[in-house]
């Protein structure tokens, strides 16, 4: 009989201890209630504050005053928390049909200041912050060589060396069980040097001194620049002259065509000129013809030229 009582006491203690869940700020975590169904009610609490309460008969949800309620929800009797914050650490209780189940949420944060790769001889500070631990819990750092440092959440390393590079372990205990988080520290190798190549030197191929640095004369560069400007300006002037000549030729051709059309029009409007003889000349010609018919001397007629050749 005593054995059964002792076994029940041990099971009750284990149930009271519950599960320990580690996470970091900003992540999502799920707390399981460990049951599939319930009859009367299901209730989730954070510390002493209620988050949700689900009635088994009506199926209605009742929201509690806990601040974490805005970032959590009940899904298949489990509690899902998104965007975990440091103040979310602590004890969570799932009560199903008046049977409690406990969870402890630990929010762990490890960091180094400064966080980048360290040059030899510099100083660095390691931080290990664990929210949700019981009073009296210890936090201790261990170096890559396995040597533990003082019991503290913060370790100051001065004049770091390449031997300090590696994985540092932050160990802490809760209810007799030890947990750990790792942090990698990088220290620059002193043998590694940044080699900068010298600027290229201009070497004249015709000279016998390959190590001599030759600098171009500034006057030559200016002359070349002005030469290109002059060539471009000359090409532009020639192009404008060609365009001007083409335009003048077209205008000259148009003018010649217009003059030719005007000349042809005037010739078509000019009347034909016929032989116009006055009455005196007609009578003289008529009298001479009469004399010719009456037998006048032909020699006298031939000496006198006709007054009108067109009559």
From TrEMBL:
Gene3D superfamilies: Immunoglobulins, transmembrane domain of human cd4
Signal peptide range in chain numbering: 1-18
Annotated InterPro entries: Ig-like_dom, Ig-like_dom_sf, Ig-like_fold, Ig_sub, Ig_sub2, Tcell_CD4_Cterm
Domain Ig-like: 26-96, 100-186
Keywords: Membrane, Signal, Transmembrane, Transmembrane helix
Taxonomic superkingdom: Eukaryota
Chain ranges passing through the membrane: 225-249
Classification via Pfam families: Ig_3, Tcell_CD4_C
Name of the featured protein: Putative T-cell surface glycoprotein CD4-like
């Amino acid at each position: 009989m005593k054995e059964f009582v002792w076994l029940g006491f041990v099971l009750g203690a284990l149930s009271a201890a519950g599960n320990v869940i580690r996470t970091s700020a900003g992540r999502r975590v799920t707390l399981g209630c460990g049951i599939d169904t319930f009859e009367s009610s299901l209730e989730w609490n954070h510390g002493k504050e209620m988050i949700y309460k689900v009635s088994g008969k009506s199926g209605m949800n009742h929201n509690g005053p806990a601040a974490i309620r805005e970032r959590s929800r009940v899904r298949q009797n489990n509690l899902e928390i998104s965007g975990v914050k440091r103040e979310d650490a602590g004890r969570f209780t799932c009560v199903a049909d008046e049977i409690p189940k406990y969870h402890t949420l630990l929010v762990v944060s490890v960091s180094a200041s400064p966080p980048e790769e360290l040059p030899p001889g510099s100083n660095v500070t390691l931080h290990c912050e664990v929210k949700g631990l019981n009073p009296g819990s210890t936090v201790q750092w261990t170096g890559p060589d396995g040597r533990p440092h003082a019991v503290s959440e913060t370790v100051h390393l001065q004049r770091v060396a390449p031997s300090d590079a590696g994985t540092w372990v932050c160990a802490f205990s809760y209810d007799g069980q030890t947990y750990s988080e790792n942090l990698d520290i990088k220290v620059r190798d002193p043998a590694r040097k940044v080699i900068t190549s010298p600027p290229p030197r201009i070497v004249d191929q015709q000279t016998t001194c390959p190590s001599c640095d030759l600098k171009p004369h500034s006057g030559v560069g200016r002359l070349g620049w002005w030469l290109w400007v002059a060539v471009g300006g000359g090409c532009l002037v020639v192009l404008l002259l060609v365009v001007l000549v083409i335009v003048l030729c077209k205008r000259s051709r148009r003018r010649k065509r217009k003059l030719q059309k005007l000349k042809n029009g005037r010739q078509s409007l000019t009347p034909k000129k016929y032989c116009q003889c006055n009455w005196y000349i007609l009578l003289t010609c008529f009298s001479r013809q009469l004399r010719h018919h009456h037998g006048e001397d032909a020699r006298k007629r031939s000496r006198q030229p006709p007054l009108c050749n067109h009559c």
